[in-house]
Design goal:
131 residues; alpha/beta; 21% strand; CoA-bd; CoA-binding protein; 5 helices; 36% helix; NAD(P)-bd_dom_sf
Length: 131
């Protein structure tokens, strides 16, 4: 998997499991990616309507765009639902953050045409490859 190519070709990112809590990894990664200025970033969380003035959407289907990359901050038991939503909206990449690893989700995602990245931090990889 060519992570650098994925990061260079990506224009829109949906962060699923976005948190308003600055101590959470999803919040830190959102602010980092926003600061790079390279991506349009959309936040997804059904329990929050906005984070620091940025709208938060309940589901991927509610986004005003099709995200190129879906960055996932959800527990493992929610990965099937996120995968199904990602396929349904036509995303290209499913990126499972550190600690998320599920070979069946990866196999099903790849069979549906998604590129699947597992157990990696997009912030760390972006800083290493493009920073």
């Amino acid at each position: 998997m060519d992570l650098e190519r994925i990061l260079r070709q990506t224009r829109t990112i949906a962060i699923v499991g976005a948190s308003p809590n600055p101590a959470r990894a999803s919040h830190d990664i959102w602010t980092y990616l926003k600061r790079t200025g390279q991506y349009e970033i959309y936040l997804v969380n059904p329990t929050v309507s906005e984070i620091e003035g940025t709208p938060v959407y309940p589901t991927l289907a509610d986004l005003p765009v099709v995200p190129d990359l879906v960055d996932v901050f959800r527990r493992r038991e929610h990965l099937r639902e996120v995968l199904d939503e990602s396929i349904a909206v036509g995303a290209k990449v499913l990126w499972l953050q550190l600690g998320l690893w599920d070979p069946q989700i990866a196999a099903d995602g790849e069979a549906a045409g998604l590129q699947v990245v597992m157990d990696r931090c997009i912030k760390v990889d972006h800083a290493r490859l493009l920073g």
